[in-house]
């Protein structure tokens, strides 16, 4: 098991390298001159040239990429073109806000989706099921920026019970977390429902009933534990979508997180800042998926056995 | 033959499944009873309604689409058809247990086998987790599994061992009635004999009334006292083991025996029963077996046969034995 986790952590290195290369390439080939964007269109050509020289923008692409990676390995993410401060400091200052938002979103999604999925499965084709599936479909199809705006319209403009933006209190958190968690919640509800429907037809469920185990217990214990494995897989993958969601939602609600910082940096073509932000999100996503794989082992003994038995590469 | 009152008596049991292709009449007016310590073999091809009968006895027919349309099931003298779900939970696994066909899928992959055996004990005997587990371990040892394997998961067990676990679960609370649905079909031949022997020893030892569902006449000869031959949801012939094996009367029973290899005459050709089980949404008129019966007459397609008693408990459902029908089973019994 430990060997497995260690191996997975080592495998993160090539993954992050790949991500950095792809993003660096895209940033480099995207149109726009950082010097012009940062200094403004009224700046003199001399000042721009000085800016390019200072940040090494005149060197060839490969040289710049290699030197960037070399610095990152030493823990130096460079300075933001825009603010002039260390990218690592900028990101670490904003990370807690994003983590709080993402975690609340996931929590909201899980707390709501699993019971809803179970009820929909038990009462298949009932009114509860139909309403639940409609809500799920709605949640999957709504773009987050739109959903966020609609929630602001409803709860802030009309009802006036929740703030439309800002950061600091729990009330500030509710709307952004709802927006971020909605697609996740909708997806998980559908997955939970279909998994439960599948498991409820298994022989061992009938067997448990034949032992005299009450239906409620069979569903909550025998079925749920089996259905959870795919649900957790999807939850892990959805975390990526959710991080993407925070990038947009943070802008809609003025939430001071990594996402909002990233969007501003992209518009300025602030290469070190964008690189740092993307690498951080990629690392978060990879770690969450590793955590998911570890959770499997605690739910399914077959997977645990597989982890410990794997000898070769 | 009247000693002991029946542990289980079923009368006129009818089960249907409502499907989009129509109403499937899976079980049509079955009755039988079974006494303490006896084993009844329920024999028939796939689709004859054997498993449906068993599930109906446990009141575990999936509803929808299944429905028990009529009939009574008397367990230890009380009709359980009117029992609530809660009352059924109290007797399932305690008074009446079931062993399922496929041990590979009958155990929950995410719980240890010990926990799965102990669960039944904890529910029915009101024991705490520790005491239930101790009892589970002793039952495992009785069915021939080392007690220390209680902490292992189903995927660590072979098929034969899994079936022992399933049997241990069924016998955990020493039920008065045990339903075994093809308990050896999914196993290797070598393991089949072992499991069968262990199974019949254990049920004889605790004087359980057993229903053995099988399509294997060899298994029947090994463990059964009475035999019911099922076809298209009906019992077409019923009798003691001797009645059925040595004095069978129904053309279908004859067909079943003719399709077995003969040890004494190895060159003899097997004689299969022609055709397939009828479509249960549209059962043939008259005698359900007539399209496949080599003795069938015109009348067989029109008139449904009723029970004709041959002697004592031995009865048959065939027009050939109804005196007023005038159907002769020409050449019956000749190979």
Description:
The complex is a heterodimer of chains A (313) and B (335). Chain A is mainly alpha-helical and 313 residues long. Chain A has a single domain (87-309), classed as MetI-like (MetI-like fold, Orthogonal Bundle), CATH 1.10.3720.10. Chain A is built from 13 helices and no strands. Chain A has helices spanning 2-29, 34-39, 45-54, 61-73, 87-122, 127-141, 144-158, 170-199, 203-211, 215-253, 258-267, 271-299, 301-309. The longest helix of chain A has 39 residues, at 215-253. Chain A is flat, with a radius of gyration of 24 Å. The mean pLDDT of chain A is 89. Chain B is α/β, with parallel strands linked by helices and 335 residues long. Chain B folds into two domains: 6-95 and 175-321, 3-Layer(aba) Sandwich (Rossmann fold), CATH 3.40.50.300; 104-174, no CATH class. Chain B contains ten helices and twelve strands. In chain B, strand 9 and strand 10 (234-240) form a beta hairpin. The longest helix of chain B has 17 residues, at 189-205. Chain B is globular and about 65 Å long. In chain B, 46% of the residues are buried. The mean pLDDT of chain B is 87. Classes of the chains: A mainly alpha (313), B alpha/beta (335). The interface between A and B is medium-sized, with 21 and 32 residues.
């Amino acid at each position: 098991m430990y060997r497995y986790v260690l191996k997975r952590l080592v495998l993160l290195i090539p993954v992050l390298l790949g991500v950095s290369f792809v993003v660096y390439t895209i940033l480099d080939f995207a149109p726009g001159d950082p010097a012009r964007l940062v200094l403004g269109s009224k700046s003199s050509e001399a000042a721009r040239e000085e800016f390019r020289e200072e940040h090494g923008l005149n060197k060839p692409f490969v040289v710049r990429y290699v030197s960037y990676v070399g610095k990152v390995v030493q823990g130096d993410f460079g300075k933001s073109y825009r603010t002039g401060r260390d990218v690592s400091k900028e990101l670490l200052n904003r990370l807690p806000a994003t983590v709080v938002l993402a975690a609340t979103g996931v929590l909201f999604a899980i707390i709501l989706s699993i019971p809803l999925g179970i009820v929909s499965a038990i009462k298949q084709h009932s009114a509860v099921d139909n309403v639940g599936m409609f809500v799920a479909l709605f949640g999957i199809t709504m773009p987050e920026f739109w959903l966020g705006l609609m929630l602001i319209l409803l709860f802030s403009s009309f009802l006036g019970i929740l703030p439309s933006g800002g950061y600091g209190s729990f009330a500030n958190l509710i709307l952004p977390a709802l927006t971020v968690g909605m697609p996740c919640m909708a997806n998980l509800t559908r997955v939970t429902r279909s998994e439960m429907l599948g498991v409820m037809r298994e022989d061992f469920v009938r067997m448990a009933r034949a032992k005299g185990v009450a239906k409620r217990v069979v569903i909550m214990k025998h079925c749920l534990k089996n259905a959870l494995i795919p649900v957790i897989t999807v939850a892990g993958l959805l975390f990526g979508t959710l991080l993407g969601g925070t990038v947009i939602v943070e802008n809609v609600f003025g939430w001071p997180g990594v996402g909002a910082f990233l969007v501003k940096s992209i518009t300025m073509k602030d290469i070190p800042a964008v690189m740092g932000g993307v690498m951080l999100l990629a690392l978060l996503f990879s770690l969450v998926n590793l955590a998911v794989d570890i959770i499997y082992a605690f739910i399914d003994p077959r997977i645990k056995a597989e982890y410990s038995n794997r000898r070769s590469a | 033959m009247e000693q002991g009152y029946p542990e289980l008596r079923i009368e006129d049991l009818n089960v249907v499944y409502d499907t989009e292709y129509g109403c499937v009449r899976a079980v049509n007016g079955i009755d039988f009873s079974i006494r303490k310590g006896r084993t009844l073999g329920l024999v028939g091809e796939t689709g004859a309604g054997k498993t449906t009968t068993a599930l109906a006895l446990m009141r575990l027919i999936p509803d929808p689409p299944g429905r028990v349309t009529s009939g009574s099931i008397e367990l230890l003298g009380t009709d359980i058809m009117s029992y609530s779900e809660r009352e059924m939970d109290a007797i399932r696994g305690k008074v009446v247990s079931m062993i399922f066909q496929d041990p590979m899928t009958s155990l929950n992959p995410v719980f240890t086998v010990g926990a799965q055996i102990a669960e039944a004990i904890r529910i029915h005997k009101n024991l705490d987790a520790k005491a239930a587990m101790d009892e589970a371990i002793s039952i495992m040892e009785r069915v021939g599994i080392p007690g220390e394997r209680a902490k292992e998961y189903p995927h660590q067990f072979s098929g034969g061992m899994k079936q022992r676990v399933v049997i241990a679960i069924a016998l955990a609370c020493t039920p008065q009635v045990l339903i075994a649905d093809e308990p050896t079909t999914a196993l290797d031949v070598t393991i089949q004999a072992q499991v069968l022997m262990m199974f019949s020893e254990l049920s004889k030892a605790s004087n359980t009334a057993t229903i053995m569902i099988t399509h294997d006449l060899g298994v029947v000869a090994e463990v059964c006292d009475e035999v019911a031959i099922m076809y298209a949801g009906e019992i077409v012939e019923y009798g003691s083991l001797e009645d059925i094996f040595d004095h069978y009367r129904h053309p279908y029973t004859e067909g079943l025996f003719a399709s077995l290899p003969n040890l004494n005459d190895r060159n003899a050709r097997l004689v299969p029963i022609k055709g397939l089980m009828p479509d249960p949404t549209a059962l043939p008129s008259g005698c359900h077996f007539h399209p496949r019966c080599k003795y069938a007459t015109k009348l067989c397609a029109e008139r449904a046969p009723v029970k004709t008693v041959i002697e004592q408990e031995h009865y048959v459902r065939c027009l050939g034995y109804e005196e007023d029908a005038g159907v002769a089973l020409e050449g019956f019994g000749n190979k």
